[in-house]
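ok so for the tutorial part 2 we go from a plain amino acid sequence to predicted structure tokens. step 1 is just haveing the sequence, like this:
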Amino acid sequence: MKTRQRHERSTLRHDAGFGLVSVMVAIVLLSVGVLSLSQVLTQSVSMQTIIAGRTTALDVARSYMEEVKGLDPLLVAATPEVRVNERGDVDANGMFTRELLITTVSLHLVEATVIVTLPRSNPIRLVTWIYDGVY
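step 2 — the prediction. this is what the tokens look like for a chain of 135 residues:
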């Protein structure tokens, strides 16, 4: 009986501290996982912000393109870059810039390109052809 107790004690002494090492390894693994997850969440929020800005820029471009299409084709002319707000109204403090480029394709056909730019993203470009209707 005493031999058995000695054997159990020696086994306990031999394994002493094993639980502490396991806990330390678990803490390190958990820390790495939490840090990775926080980085992914940060990037996700950043991408959502950029996507929301691009969606708003696309709305501004579409709205302006519809205005251009509603003009008399003979009066459509290029406009310089101007700052606009999220509704497309001219605003010196607007976060978007908008411009209209006009390129002659043929005698009675022009290409109208609306370009809307926003910070930290590629510009949005919408292109349409406008026929002046003159024979």
